[in-house]
From TrEMBL:
Keyword Zinc included in the entry's annotation: yes
PANTHER family with a match to the protein in the record: CXXC MOTIF CONTAINING ZINC BINDING PROTEIN
Name of the molecule in the record: CXXC motif containing zinc binding protein
An MF annotation (GO) of this entry: zinc ion binding
Entries under InterPro entries matching the protein: CXXC_Zn-binding_euk (IPR008584)
Keyword annotations from UniProtKB, A to Z: Metal-binding, Zinc
Gene: Ca123
Domain of life: Eukaryota
Similarity comment: family membership: Belongs to the UPF0587 family.
Length: 64
C-alpha cells in the first residue's frame, strides 16, 4: 500500500507525522530490490529489501 506525501511530492509505503515538530517523515520500500531468501541462503547474510528513509530510521524489521 502507498500513502500520499504532503504537498503532492509522491507517495510512500509509510508516512508518519512527528508529534513534537509536526514534520512529515516517510519510509518507502524499493520494490525493485525485493529478493527471496531461500534454504540455500541459510546462515548467510543477504540483502532481501532496501528502504528509502526520510526522517525515520527503522530499528526492527519482521519480514512476514
Amino acid at each position: 500500500d502507498s500513502a500520499p506525501l504532503k504537498g503532492g511530492r509522491g507517495s510512500a509505503t509509510m508516512v508518519q507525522k512527528c508529534k513534537l515538530c509536526s514534520r512529515e517523515n516517510s519510509i518507502d520500500i524499493l520494490s525493485q530490490t525485493i529478493k527471496p531468501y531461500n534454504a540455500e541462503d541459510s546462515e548467510k547474510f543477504k540483502t532481501i529489501v532496501e528502504f528509502e528513509c526520510r526522517g525515520l530510521e527503522p530499528v526492527d524489521f519482521q519480514p512476514q
